[in-house]
Amino acid sequence: MNNLNDTLPGLMHRATENLEPASTDLLERTVQQGLRLRRRRTTLLTATGAGAVLATAGLVVGTTQVLGRPSDAAVAGTTPTPSASPHTPAAKPVTSKETLATLKALIQAPGLTLSKPETWGDKSALGAAYVVDDGKGASRVDVLLTGGGEEDRCAVPSAACTTLPDGSTLFSLADQPEYPGNRNKDGVVSNYVVRRLPDGRIISMTSYNAPAEKGSPHTRAKPLYSVAQLSALVQSKAWKLPPKSAVVKPSKGATPPSKTK
To answer: Residue ranges of region Disordered (predicted)?
Structure first.
């Protein structure tokens, strides 16, 4: 038996002695194939990288659209400064001229002539008056609006008092001489109604049988407006009352009226 170390070289020589060496063309084709495989791998990697970039960009865009831009997020996350509450302007004080206009709107009617408008008072006591003539004699009609503080004439129930559904009370006097006894030389009488609201404010109206409370003879037997008519007038919602006041005032205006042109 031959030694393995002696026969192995010979065996290798015999196995390869008939092999032809690789041609130049084969080598070139092998190189080209390797280059093509390398380009394909590079292209694949590039495409994969680009896809990853696009996917990342899409994720960023989508997140921005949903959550907003970073600057928007910062603004949205900022605690909003509460806006100042709108200032409520103080109510405009009612004037005696407005009271006169309301009186005119309530009493004017076909067949009546209104003259000698008067106003007096301000703030917590507003007065207004007209001389009204229906062709049968002139009659002074006045109204006084106060913020309250006056004596409650219906504190003790009497025949002169009526309680209204809203809690207001009506105090009324009919055909009352303006002055007692011999002092009433001009024969002036009046119908007088006072409405006291639940909050203490007052609407009072008087109708005379003369063009003036005093200093003028009566021109008709009865005042133009009855107690029933005056009661309806003082219940009108058209009156704009002065603010509530705690100052006690006389039920009839103590301040002399001033003529309003």
So the answer is: 72-94
